[in-house]
Specification:
Layout: E1 2-6, E2 14-15, E3 18-19, H1 21-37, E4 42-46, H2 57-73, E5 77-80, H3 87-90, H4 94-98, E6 102-105, E7 115-119, E8 122-129, H5 134-141, H6 148-164, E9 171-177, E10 179-180, E11 199-200, E12 210-214, E13 220-223, E14 226-228, E15 245-251, E16 257-263, E17 270-275, H7 277-282, E18 293-298, H8 307-314, E19 318-323, H9 336-340, H10 345-356, H11 364-387
Helix pairs in contact: 1-2, 5-6, 10-11
């Protein structure tokens, strides 16, 4: 059985205030064309269909068009909700849409109920694990603990129990939206940290033939059977070096997996350039970036006049302008942003405690309080998205 694995469409998202709707429409065209030309037997969409819980109308219309075109091809699609989606909204009409071969899996309680498709070698059971917010689904799944690992383990126990009751030789595929240990992050993914921990071990998915992951925006393999497709478009300059692709996965009769990356259309390349303004304006080595979307970091010791206007004369698609003046090591004027770069919210709050107490850091009990507070804020934001 040939599977086309994609995820993280984020329909409705813009890039530094530039609409990506046209590029997202081109991706849907490419997806449909790939399904047709490469003779895919099923399409897997591993979450974050939309960029927010209440997407703009244009994004909903594009999603509707994609569903109609996939249904017309007669190729089944299995799709789960991600942490950006409203599971309730995305799942409206799922039973009816399923009759057209579009299988939406947004209910955590249905983790152990697969979509069963068949080929010449027998059945393949597809289990959809939508994004599982631990505080919201722990009781429903009867998870042993409060974190991501515990709720995913509980969901996978249901998967393995159902699979054990099926005929010998049934192949299995899991779709999940999660941060699996070993994956590389980018700046455009929403934080899902709980209790100071966001990632789950790959061993959680033991026992299935292929795990189609969503959430991380870079295409990558955790193991030869556990893969992220990544987002089809770049959504931050941290993805400038990404090769945006989908996975074309062949699942053989014995469950052997072979996979090939299929490139996605690139609306415009990304470039990150750095240096003093005059150097950036004069460097012939930067000619190749003149038609790219550009993030420029200026290192001039003193901010130059009209930097954006001058940059856009050479790089008309400059979208982001940053200032990081060259300073000697230990200079007290080093920017606050530089000191915070790469640090988590938990690390920043603990550093603040140490700062205001003259170097005495938070003890274990205080770190627990800080972690609980951060989790509470993030959960309130998630619950608000779900309610909408």
């Amino acid at each position: 059985m040939r599977l086309l694995h994609t995820s993280d469409w984020h329909l409705g998202r813009s890039f530094h205030r530039v609409s990506l709707l046209h590029a997202q429409r081109e991706f849907i065209d490419h997806l449909v064309q790939t399904v047709r030309e490469r003779q895919a037997d099923a399409v897997l969409v591993a979450g974050d269909v939309y960029d927010r819980a209440v997407p703009p109308l244009a994004a909903v219309e594009l999603f509707d068009d994609a569903l109609h075109r996939l249904a017309e091809l007669g190729v089944p699609t299995v799709m789960i909700s991600g942490n950006h989606d409203s599971a309730r909204r995305l799942g409206v009409g799922a039973g009816l849409i399923g009759r057209a071969g579009i299988h939406l899996r947004t209910d955590p309680a249905a983790c152990g109920t697969p979509v069963v498709l068949a080929d010449a070698h027998g059945d393949v059971a597809f289990y959809g694990l939508p994004y599982l917010e631990p505080a919201l689904v722990r009781e429903e799944l009867e998870a042993a603990g409060p974190g991501h690992t515990a709720v995913l383990q509980a969901a996978m126990e249901r998967v393995r129990a159902d699979l054990a009751a099926r005929p010998a030789g049934t192949r299995s595929v899991v779709l999940a939206h999660a941060f699996v240990a070993g994956g590389a992050t980018s700046d455009s993914e929403r934080d899902i940290t709980v209790g100071g921990v966001a990632s789950v071990p790959a061993e959680v998915f033991h026992g299935v033939h292929y795990t189609a992951l969503g959430h991380l925006h870079g295409c990558q393999t955790i193991t030869d059977r556990i893969c992220y497709s990544g987002s089809p478009l770049a959504y931050s300059f941290s993805e400038a070096d990404h090769r945006k692709t989908m996975w074309l996965v062949d699942l053989d009769a014995d469950g052997t997996v072979t996979a090939e990356r299929v490139d996605c259309p690139v609306p415009r390349p990304l470039a990150r350039i750095r240096g003093r303004l005059e150097e950036l304006l004069d460097d012939p080595g930067l000619d190749r970036h003149e038609e790219a979307w550009v993030e420029a970091t200026l290192t001039d010791p003193v901010r130059p006049p009209e930097p954006m206007a001058r940059l856009t004369r050479r790089f008309p698609h400059t979208l982001s302008l940053l200032f990081e003046p060259d300073r000697p090591p230990g200079d007290p004027l080093a920017s606050y942003a530089q000191r915070l770069h790469g640090r988590s919210d938990r690390q920043i709050t603990e550093d603040f405690v140490a700062h205001v107490r003259g170097g005495q850091g938070a003890d274990e009990a205080e770190r627990a309080v800080l972690t609980t507070a951060l989790d509470s804020v993030r959960l309130d934001e998630t619950a608000g998205e779900v309610a909408r």
